[in-house]
């Protein structure tokens, strides 16, 4: 999960627990130093009702250990990931991949910003970097230059199809902006699948690029 605002950061804190509980899978929130230090207004969601909490608890019945309990849905399950028998281990691994497929079907999240058939450049950025890219896109829009943005909200499962579909008929380049050395770059290249060139620019060490710097990079693309 990759928040781009303090509001998203706060929302994802509880969402991460629910997702980890639902899928029995680790969930990480990929926030950055800027989000960790900035102040923004936040509205906390209403807490779940007792009935909603009880409903969430029922999703455990298919796997959790229920010691000394009998009756429907109260099974004495074994939770173990160390299987010595190769056939049993193979089934366990295949079951894990079935779970990953379900996650991929249900948990792809992304935002489209200014995406249209008029785009000549498509940007991909997440977290704080995406906010800066949005500002640059708005400035370019004043000059009649069309740039779109795909912002992954969950970086896994990755929105490959969304990136591919956003490459409109006029797009001549996909530009990836990150506050790292390109951790998302390979995913973007997979999504683009060679349709257009993919470029990258990143900053590290706590240095954050400015909207003006992003705008200059994009303006250079229009002159190519």
The string of secondary-structure elements, in order, is HHHHEEHEHEHEH
Shape: globular
Fraction of helical residues: 40-55%
- How large a portion of the residues is in β-strands, by DSSP E? 5-15%
The rounded Rg comes to 22 Å
Q: How many domains, in number, for the residues?
A: 2
SS-based structural class?
alpha/beta
Q: Total helix count?
A: 8
CATH class of the largest domain: Alpha Beta
Q: What spatial order of strands do you see in the largest sheet?
A: 1-3-2-4-5
Mean pLDDT figure: 91
Span between N and C termini? 35 Å
Number of strands: 5
What fold name goes in the CATH topology slot of the largest domain? Rossmann fold
CATH architecture of the largest domain: 3-Layer(aba) Sandwich
Largest sheet: 5 strands, mixed
Low-confidence stretches: none
What does this structure look like?
The protein is of the alpha/beta class and about 220 residues long. It folds into two domains: about 5-105, no CATH class; about 110-220, 3-Layer(aba) Sandwich (Rossmann fold), CATH 3.40.50. It contains eight helices and five strands; from the N terminus they run ααααββαβαβαβα. It has helices at about 5-25, 35, 50-55, 85-105, 130-140, 160-165, 185-190, 210-220; strands spanning about 110-115, 120-125, 145-150, 175-180, 200. Strands 1-3-2-4-5 form a five-stranded mixed beta sheet, sandwiched between helices. β4 (about 175-180), α7 and β5 form a beta-alpha-beta unit.
């Amino acid at each position: 999960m990759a928040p781009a605002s303090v509001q998203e950061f706060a929302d994802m804190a509880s969402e991460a627990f629910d997702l980890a509980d639902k899928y029995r899978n680790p969930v990480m929130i990929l926030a950055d130093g800027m989000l960790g230090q900035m102040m923004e207004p936040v509205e906390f969601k209403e807490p779940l009702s007792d009935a909603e909490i009880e409903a969430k608890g029922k999703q455990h019945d298919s796997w959790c250990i229920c010691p000394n309990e009998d009756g429907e849905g109260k099974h004495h399950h074994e939770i173990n990931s160390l299987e010595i028998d190769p056939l049993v281990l193979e089934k366990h691994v295949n079951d894990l991949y079935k779970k990953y497929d379900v996650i991929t079907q249900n948990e792809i999240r992304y935002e489209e910003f200014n995406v249209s058939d008029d785009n000549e450049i498509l940007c991909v950025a997440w977290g704080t970097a995406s906010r800066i890219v949005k500002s640059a896109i708005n400035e370019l829009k004043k000059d009649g230059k069309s740039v779109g943005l795909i912002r992954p909200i969950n970086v896994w499962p990755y929105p490959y199809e969304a990136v591919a579909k956003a490459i409109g008929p006029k797009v001549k380049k996909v530009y990836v902006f990150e506050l790292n050395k390109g951790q998302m770059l390979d995913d973007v290249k997979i999504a683009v699948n060679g349709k257009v060139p993919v470029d990258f620019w990143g900053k590290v060490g706590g240095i954050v690029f400015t909207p003006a710097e992003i705008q200059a990079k994009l303006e250079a693309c229009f002159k190519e």
